[in-house]
Amino acid sequence: MGNNISINTNVQIGASGGKIFMGNNILIAPNVVIRAADHGLKAGELIMSQPHTPGTIYIEDDVWIGSNAVITANLTLSKGTVVAGGAVVTRSTEPYSIVGGVPARKISERL
Description:
Layout: E1 5-7, E2 12-14, E3 19-22, E4 26-28, E5 33-35, E6 37-39, E7 52-54, E8 56-59, E9 64-65, E10 70-71, E11 75-77, E12 82-83, E13 88-89, E14 97-100, E15 105-109
Parallel strand pairs: 1-4, 2-5, 3-8, 4-9, 5-10, 8-11, 9-12, 10-13, 12-14
Antiparallel strand pairs: 6-7, 14-15
């Protein structure tokens, strides 16, 4: 974890065997979920018995993650990214992009 990171209430950060790296000057709004692992989904096996597959999340400098957003494994939130509230981010972002939706897509960019 870097410096000057603001983590609001009810934020869930779980690596579950994976890794999460955070840069500097990051804002994380309430109710955000950052999860660096996926759960197995094999048919014929109990869901509770399925293993986690660890991944990695990189959150670069100057990122703002809005309320109720979900950040999934194996991606990078590039420098200056803004994640809209309620977005589900499933792939890496471009620097200074604004992403939103389910799944999140680029909707604008910081000017």
